[in-house]
Design a protein that fits this description.
CATH class of the largest domain: Alpha Beta
Structural class: alpha/beta
CATH topology of the largest domain: TIM Barrel
Radius of gyration: 22 Å
CATH architecture of the largest domain: Alpha-Beta Barrel
Helix content: 25-40%
Strand content: 15-25%
Number of domains: 2
Number of strands: 12
Number of helices: 12
Length: 322
C-alpha cells in the first residue's frame, strides 16, 4: 500500500525520523533527499536552538505540500524554567507556535527531564497553557519520569497528547492522535529494531482507536528502521539488511566498526544491537548468534566466525527455529 493510510481504514500513519542532518545523499540537500524517502520528520534542532523564521520557511519550501513536520519545543521551557507561567516561557511557546505555523506542523513536542515532578507543578502547567492560544497545534508531552493519575488528568483536560516510546510503554491518556518517539531498548541510542519489534509497533497502532499516528524513529539506525517499516506496510515484507544471509551477513554488520581483540561480552554489548539477515526474510539482532560464542577473547572477525561455525548443533537450531 502506498501513502500514509492505514490499510484502507481511513486512518493515517506518518513514519519518519528525528531530523534529517544525517541523511546523506551525494550532491543533494539533506532535507530535499530525506523528503523523497519519507513523508514526515521531527525537527530536533529546535530543542537546542532558535532558528530564524527565514530558515524555517526555507525548510518548508524544500518539501511537498503533503509533507509533515513536528517541532520540538526549546529545552529552556522545560529544563530551565520548569514549565512555569513566566513571560519567558510564554515567549518560548509563542515562538514555537510560529515555527509550527510556518511548517504546517500540528504537533509541538515538549520533553521534561527525569528529575521533573509534574505533580508539584500542576497549577503552573495549567496556567501556562491556558495563557496562550495553541490554535490547531497539539502539545505532545514526553514525561521522562513518573506518570501519575493527576498528571494524566491534566493532560486530558488541556488536550495534550501523552508521547511515549510505544515499543516500551503505551500512552496513559486516550487521544485520536498518537505521537511516539521510538528509541528501542539500547544504551545511548545504540539500537536497531528487528522484524518482531517493528511488527509489534505496527500492531499496537493499528489496534488503537486513533485517526492519525506519527512515528519518529531515533538512534543509530533510525533511517533504516523507518524505511523498513514503511516498506513492510507497503509490500507486506521486510527488506534485507545486507546483500547476504547467515554468517556472511553477520560479518558485514560487525565489520562496520568492530574493534579487535574483543571478548564475547564486548561483542554482545557493542555489536549485538545491530540487525542482520539470519536467513531470507528473517532479520534478527546480532546478539542472537553472538550469545552462542564460547567465552573468551577473539583477535579477529575470522576467529569469531570460526567459533560460530564450530557450534554447528547450536547454529542449526537457531537457523531453523525461527
Amino acid at each position: 500500500m502506498d501513502g500514509p493510510g492505514f490499510y484502507g481504514t481511513g486512518k493515517t500513519m506518518y513514519i519518519g525520523a528525528g531530523g534529517w542532518s544525517y541523511f546523506k545523499v551525494p550532491e543533494q540537500d539533506p532535507l530535499t533527499a530525506y523528503a523523497k524517502a519519507f513523508d514526515f520528520v521531527e525537527v530536533n534542532s529546535t530543542f537546542y536552538t532558535h532558528p530564524s523564521l527565514e530558515m524555517v520557511r526555507s525548510w518548508r519550501q524544500k518539501v511537498s505540500d503533503d509533507f509533515m513536520f513536528s517541532v520540538r519545543c526549546h529545552r529552556d521551557l522545560t529544563h530551565k524554567n520548569l514549565l512555569s507561567p513566566t513571560n519567558e516561557n510564554c515567549e518560548i511557546l509563542a515562538r514555537s507556535l510560529r515555527i509550527c505555523h510556518e511548517l504546517k506542523a500540528e504537533i509541538l513536542h515538549i520533553q521534561t527531564p527525569p528529575s521533573f515532578d509534574p505533580d508539584e507543578k500542576l497549577k503552573d502547567i495549567r496556567d501556562l497553557f491556558s495563557s496562550i492560544d495553541l490554535g490547531k497545534v497539539k502539545p505532545g508531552w514526553e514525561i521522562r519520569g513518573w506518570m501519575t493519575q493527576a498528571t494524566s488528568d491534566l493532560m486530558r483536560d488541556t488536550g495534550m497528547i501523552h508521547c511515549t516510546d510505544i515499543s516500551k510503554e503505551m500512552p496513559s491518556t486516550d487521544s485520536d492522535i498518537l505521537y511516539t518517539r521510538l528509541f528501542g531498548h539500547g544504551v545511548h541510542n545504540l539500537y536497531q529494531f528487528d522484524d518482531a519489534e517493528l511488527l509489534d509497533i505496527d500492531s499496537k497502532i493499528v489496534g488503537k482507536n486513533i485517526k492519525k499516528a506519527y512515528l519518529t524513529f531515533h538512534g543509530a539506525r533510525m533511517y533504516k528502521d523507518a524505511a523498513r517499516l514503511k516498506i513492510f506496510r507497503k509490500n507486506g515484507v521486510f527488506p534485507n539488511i545486507t546483500q547476504t544471509t547467515g554468517l556472511d551477513s553477520l560479518r558485514s554488520v560487525i565489520e562496520e566498526d568492530a574493534k579487535f581483540p574483543a571478548t564475547k561480552q564486548e561483542l554482545i554489548e557493542k555489536q549485538g544491537w545491530k540487525v542482520f539477515d539470519l536467513a531470507e526474510n528473517k532479520h534478527v539482532h546480532a546478539g542472537v548468534l553472538l550469545e552462542t560464542l564460547p567465552d573468551g577473547k577473539y583477535a579477529t572477525i575470522e576467529e569469531v566466525l570460526g567459533a560460530l561455525k564450530r557450534e554447528q548443533t547450536i547454529l542449526g537450531h537457531i537457523f531453523h527455529g525461527f
